[in-house]
Write a structure and sequence with these properties.
The structure holds 2 protein chains of 2 kinds.
Chain A (H helix, E strand, L loop, with lengths): L9 H26 L3 H15 L3 E3 L5 E3 L3 H8 L1 H19 L7 H22 L7 H28 L14 H36 L1
Antiparallel strand pairs in A: 1-2
Helix pairs in contact in A: 1-2, 1-4, 1-5, 2-4, 3-4, 3-5, 3-6, 4-5, 5-6, 6-7
Chain B lengths: L1 H16 L5 H15 L3 H30 L4 H24 L2 H4 L4 H30 L7 H32 L2 H11 L1
The chains are: A mainly alpha, B mainly alpha.
Chain lengths: 213, 191
């Protein structure tokens, strides 16, 4: 779902960068304090895991597929801040190694999908307490994906208001929220459900393997 | 040094280009960027075109349709969007060809180590994933039902999660055994 370079106005991506930098600094400190000398290898493995998880295709009815974002899984398995840091590094590697996504859009993508989406997953999961039913995983992940999609749609939809020339012609993404919200959010309501079910399955498989070991 | 200079130059160029809105100037910069690629220009241009085609076509067609319906001008925006996004993609693929990320991170040993470890781990996980996919394909002479494919995707991810937990611990022990953390502590003491 992430946004490529050239569609976001400097007013939006510079503001997002100003917000993201302290968040990244805080995340680095949290991860380093929690993991001390294990921080670098742990973060490297987590980042690689997130990178490759995003290449796993989730099958959709009709023979098509979408890819897993892996954010809900990472947050539930490792916590919000390590997951946010790993997810941000994944976005940076995708932009710098593959040309996927964009470097100017990175702070927006990281804040919407990694931080806000991840915080929703953690917050909603905490409401379930010790409940280990499928809904205690599926609902938080679904909401995390949907909230991230809503935020990205709002950022994209704000572009014509942020940057238009004197003739009213848009300088970046041209459509407002009336278009971006349904176009982006509706498909993610289905994708989020699939990601939630898959996350629940993965955590279940891991639990049963640990119990058997 | 060269890698960092190229990376910084690319980043500055990307930011600067987002402040350019004149299609004529964007076209001039695009021609300049293509000329700078030399003989590789067609190959890189094709790669950049493939990368941006879906987003650009979708946005452009939707904009042309809505402008046509409301009787507004669409040419300026379509030129501006397509030239800018294509130019940015072209510069990014040029940067990818010329920058070694590990070398660019050399002044920051912790970051360099993180980059090198991450790239190595990505390779290791990708191999595992490919093995899983090939094994699944070889066990499935006909297209498996959706439930089975969904289960396979879940098991692939679970296997990688398990491997990640093991590898994080193994890497940590390996680095500790080779004195990496002692060296870093020594470096910190000296500074």
């Amino acid at each position: 779902m992430h946004i490529p370079d050239g569609l976001i106005a400097p007013q939006a991506y510079l503001a997002a960068a100003a917000l993201a930098v302290p968040c990244w600094a805080y995340a680095v400190r949290r991860v380093a304090n929690a993991l001390d000398e294990r921080a670098i290898p742990r973060l490297a493995v987590l980042t690689a895991l997130a990178f490759v998880l995003s290449t796993i295709m989730v099958p959709l009815p009709g023979g098509t597929s979408a890819h897993l974002s892996g954010m809900g899984l990472l947050v539930l398995a490792f916590g919000l801040w390590p997951a946010f840091l790993a997810f941000s590094l994944v976005l940076a590697l995708q932009a710098l190694l593959l040309g996927a996504g964009g470097i100017t859009a990175l702070p927006v993508n990281a804040l919407c999908m990694g931080l806000a989406g991840g915080a929703v997953v953690v917050g909603v999961r905490s409401l379930f307490g010790a409940n280990t039913s499928a809904w205690a995983t599926v609902l938080p992940v679904w909401l995390g994906v949907v909230v991230a999609a809503v935020l990205l749609a709002l950022v994209l939809g704000a572009q014509p208001y942020l940057a238009s020339d004197p003739d009213g012609q848009p300088q970046f993404f041209p459509f407002g929220p009336a278009v971006t919200l349904p176009v982006i959010v509706l498909p993610h309501m289905l994708l989020g459900l699939l990601e939630g079910v898959l996350t629940w399955m993965i955590l279940g498989i891991l639990d049963s393997r640990r119990a058997a070991a | 040094m060269k890698d960092r200079a190229v990376l910084a130059g690319w980043l500055a160029a990307v930011v600067a280009i987002t402040f350019v809105h004149d299609p004529g100037l964007l076209a001039g910069l695009l021609l300049l960027a293509l000329a700078a690629q030399g003989a590789r220009a067609p190959k890189i241009a094709l790669r950049a075109l493939i990368a941006v085609a879906l987003v650009n076509l979708t946005v452009s067609i939707a904009f042309v349709a809505s402008a046509w319906l409301s009787g507004e001008d669409w040419m300026l925006f379509v030129l501006r969007l397509n030239l800018r996004v294509f130019l940015l993609a072209l510069l990014t693929f040029w940067m990818i060809r010329h920058v070694d990320l590990a070398r660019a991170a050399a002044p920051w040993p912790a970051l360099q180590f993180l980059v090198v470890l991450t790239l190595g781990q990505i390779r290791s996980f990708t191999t595992l994933l490919t093995d899983y996919r090939m094994a699944f394909a070889s066990r499935s002479p006909t297209r498996p039902p959706l439930r089975v494919r969904f289960g396979s995707a879940g098991r692939q991810a679970a296997a990688m999660m398990e491997k990640a937990e093991r590898q994080a611990e193994e890497l940590n022990q390996g680095m500790r055994a080779r004195g990496f953390f002692d060296e870093r502590a020594g470096t910190n003491d000296r500074t």
